[in-house]
Amino acid sequence: GPCTQCSCSSGKEPTKDPSHTKKKENGDGLFVPKIFFGTRTHKQIAQISRELKRTAYCSVPMTILSSRDYTCIHPVVSNSTTNRNEMCVDLLEGKHGKSCAYYHGVHKLVEHHGLQSAHGVYQAWDIEDLVSLGRKLRACAYFAARELMVGADIVFCPYNYLLDPQIRDSMDINLKGQVVILDEAHNIEDCARESVSYGVTESQLRAAREELDFMVSNNIRHKDHEPLRAVCCSLI
């Protein structure tokens, strides 16, 4: 039955309350906020997307933001044990005379009917669906998911995509005026701590100290590098 808490129960048109009507910056049309749904792990995103398929909202435009570890399909980068992000950037910039053919096929994946039903209605999907379709079309699933965010009403992602300002900037996520849902929010404290923490090995510290020794001994910005060297030495 109709709800009793708003104007739809009486059949009246809702009043135009400016506090509830958000206009676009150019003043045209309504601004509809996106729902950013944050989870602790990528595995939980797969569970939520399965549940979404079972609801009446399964046709809502959506996307899933995840790292290259889960979505990269480039045969060299995806199988590498080194920093996949740096390798991807090198390919995009054309370093070493090589480029990424999968990146240039992003549009094929974004526009593919596999993410929609036969009548153009969207259907819920998970990361595995996107990656599988990306391999079939030889198109990058990582950047396709980012492209789909533009028209998505629901965006699923891990916590740190919403909490870490550096990741938000790199993924072009703007949370102003949007709806944010955090699943199992009692884990937020640990995630926030991780976002402002950094792990470093003893070998990295020793390598940094050697470089700083060289800087100091050659009188290169001595007043800046001397305190840094002292920090490295004390940590070692």
TrEMBL record:
> What Pfam family does this protein match (any one)?
DEAD_2
Q: Which GO terms describe its biological process?
A: double-strand break repair involved in meiotic recombination; nucleotide-excision repair
Which top-level group of life is the source organism from? Eukaryota
This protein's record includes keyword Nucleotide-binding:
yes
Give the GO cellular component terms, alphabetically.
Answer: nucleus
Q: GO molecular function: any one?
A: DNA helicase activity
Which PANTHER family did the record assign?
DNA REPAIR DEAD HELICASE RAD3/XP-D SUBFAMILY MEMBER, FANCONI ANEMIA GROUP J PROTEIN
What is this protein's record name? Answer: FANCJ protein
Organism equals: Grallaria varia (variegated antpitta)
